[in-house]
Amino acid sequence: MSALLELTGVSKRFGGIDAVRGVDLRVERGEIIGLIGPNGAGKTTLVNLITGVHRATAGTVRFEGADVTAQRPHEAARRGLARTFQIVQPFPQMTVLENVMAGSLFAGASATPAIAREDAMQHLERVGLGAQAHRPAAILTLPSRKRLELAKSLAMKPRLLLLDEVNAGLNTSEIDGALELIRSIAADGVTIILIEHLMKVVLSLSQRVLVLHQGALIADGPPRAVVDDPRVVEAYLGARFAARFAQHPTEASRA
Amino acid sequence: MASHWRRIGIGLWLLGVAAAPLSGDNYVIKIATFVAFYGALALSWNFIGGYAGYPSFATAAFVGLGSYAGALCQNAGVPMVLSWGLAAGVTAIAAAALGFVVLRLRGHYFAIGSIALVEILSLIASWWSGLTGGGEGLNVTILPGGPVFIARFFLYAMLAIVVLALVATVLVERGRLGFGLRCIAQNEDAAEMVGVPTTLYKVLAFVLSGVFCGAAGAAYASWVAYIAPTDAFSILLTVKVPVMVLLGGPGTVFGPLLGSSALVLLEETVWARFLEFHQAILGAVIVALIFFLPGGLLGLAGRVRKSA
User: Fold this and answer.
1) At what angle do helices B26-45 and B255-269 cross, to 10 degrees?
2) Is B179 within 8 Å of A103 when comparing Cβ atoms?
3) Quick check: B195 and A152 CB within 8 A?
4) Are residues B190 and A91, on separate chains, in Cβ contact within 8 Å?
5) For residue B274, what are the CA distances in angstroms to A50, B1, B169, B231?
6) Measured between CB atoms, does B198 come within 8 Å of chain A?
7) Domain containing B225: what range?
8) Which of A217, A48, B170 is nearest to A57 (CA)?
9) Chain A interface includes B23 (CB < 8 A)
10) Are B263 and B247 in contact (CB under 8 A)?
11) Hey, where are the domains in chain A?
């Protein structure tokens, strides 16, 4: 059986900048994958290439065996490729419920707005926004907006969910709640790619971690092994620190 | 706006226009016909400008195209009402083709692109004198039956187009298309991300905003029995119709009807006395709308109810 998602030699060039360079990647059904990398490493660009926002300059993207390199974002959404945005993107003048209905109506399985309304309400209850259903999306706080993004993505009945910094800007207890929620989504059989800066989230959820640096995939493996990989340490902290870390791991981590 | 108030408003509006012949005054019937004509145009603009939030100035392009297509069909011997239908069809096809091009633009660029459509079609109508009569205009076969019959006939013809546009509006508003267009109006990129086929929906909204304009334009040509490029593709008309919708309440069912009738009646009762300031007053109305009535008259009614 083919992988759920398969990238072969995917590159993206913006003018003179190689944002993503020759990425090869297989994602199997049911995996939870962490995608990390320093700022500007190309993480969001990679997500955009998978969801049809950008078209790869070279290489192919296959989803469930079909070549989707040239798909438009709405086609990706209908195929079951849902994503949340690092910068949340609500429909500000609609209610919270209507925001989620949009996902259910256009990418999920709901045939009419009435069915979408019921479906959306369930997703809102699940992320803990049931009480806010009829308030305008524009007045939500940042943590609530992040949950709204999540509810909207869930309403799209995703097979693969790409969570782009869904935990950024949340406090510790809010993060614990989010971890719980992501685990329960994964338990429903949704494959998840987490794009994340918070190592706590990455290490506690991911079965496999990918590291992107200057547009190229430099590591791919179990979380612990990847974190200790000298190339990864170097990408984050620079060559000199990485050399010290290799000699005296404990001393370096104290410094 | 509560739906029963909306129904009452629409019902009263339709009754009021339909009852105009009771006055026995041909002037009143003529004004009512204009109210219906602009009502149809305002409902049309509402699809692209109100629901999808695209500031279209293409209204006159559709009206002009419809009036020429209808007039040419009629002069070629096609029965009148059938030629209006053909005109609507021609306008729909043109709207789809043009929409595919200009709807790639957003915001101000789209506004300018849509105005360009009016100018280009107007120039074609002027140049292609073999077909359109050029700047001298085109006479349309006059309907037999005498002025009283003709006045009533065209009033009800316009009203029928309004009813069709109303039905289309209600269907769109209740369905996926209306929901998708509202998503597009608020955040087009996010709409695409949740699975709204944005290009298709925008083109559909543009076609809907063209088809009833085409029919109304063709009916107008038959009514006045003479069209010329400057009348048919009037820049003033293309600005007035969006102002009407903004005045009534964009993205609602009743707003376009309320706004268009308010402006037509204002025009007849007040502006007619100040002919030289006509356009200056329209300008003042636009400025006042932008500053004081962002949701139109219906938005104002909503605010009053909330504070009460």
Assistant:
1) 140
2) no
3) no
4) yes
5) 62, 35, 35, 21
6) yes
7) 3-307
8) A48
9) no
10) yes
11) 1-80+158-224, 90-157
B308 touches chain A (CB under 8 A): no
Per-residue pLDDT 10s for chain B (308 aa) are 457 888 899 999 999 999 999 988 889 999 999 999 999 999 999 999 999 999 999 999 999 999 999 999 999 999 999 999 999 999 999 999 999 999 989 888 999 999 999 999 999 999 998 888 887 888 888 888 888 899 999 999 999 999 999 999 999 999 999 999 999 999 999 999 999 999 999 999 999 999 999 999 999 999 998 998 888 899 889 999 999 999 888 889 999 999 999 989 888 877 777 777 777 777 787 788 777 777 777 776 666 555 54
Q: Do B194 and A102 touch (CB under 8 A)?
A: yes
pLDDT tens for each residue of B196-219: 999 999 999 999 999 999 999 999
Look up the CATH number of the domain holding residue B37. 1.10.3470
Closest residue on chain A to B189 (Cα): A89
Residue B298 has a pLDDT of 76
Please state the domain count of chain B: 1
| A17-21: Cβ within 8 A, 24+ apart | A18/A215, A19/A45, A19/A215, A20/A45, A20/A46, A20/A49, A20/A56, A20/A212, A20/A215, A21/A214, A21/A215, A21/A216
**Is B179 in CB contact (< 8 Å) with chain A?**
yes
Q: Name which CATH class applies to A1-80+158-224.
A: alpha beta
CB contact under 8 A, B194 and A107: yes
Chain B's closest residue to A72, CA to CA, is: B192
**A215-251 tens-digit pLDDT:** 999 888 898 888 888 888 787 777 777 677 667 655 5
Size of interface A-B (CB pairs under 8 A): 69
CA distance B179 to chain A (A): 8
Q: Which among A111, A117, A85 is positioned nearest to A99, based on CA atoms?
A: A117
| Chain B residues touching residue A77 (CB < 8 angstroms) | 192-195
Q: How far off is chain B from A227, nearest CA to CA, in Å?
A: 33
Q: What is the residue type of A233?
A: V
Give the tokens for residue B253: 């069912």
Find the closest chain A residue to B179 by CA distance: A102
How far, in Å, CA of A116 to CA of A104, rounded?
5
Q: Is A241 on the interface with B (CB under 8 A)?
A: no
Residue B149 CA to residue A177 CA, distance in Å, equals 73
| Cβ atoms B22, B40 nearer than 8 A | no
ipTM: 0.85
B16 contact A CB<8A: no
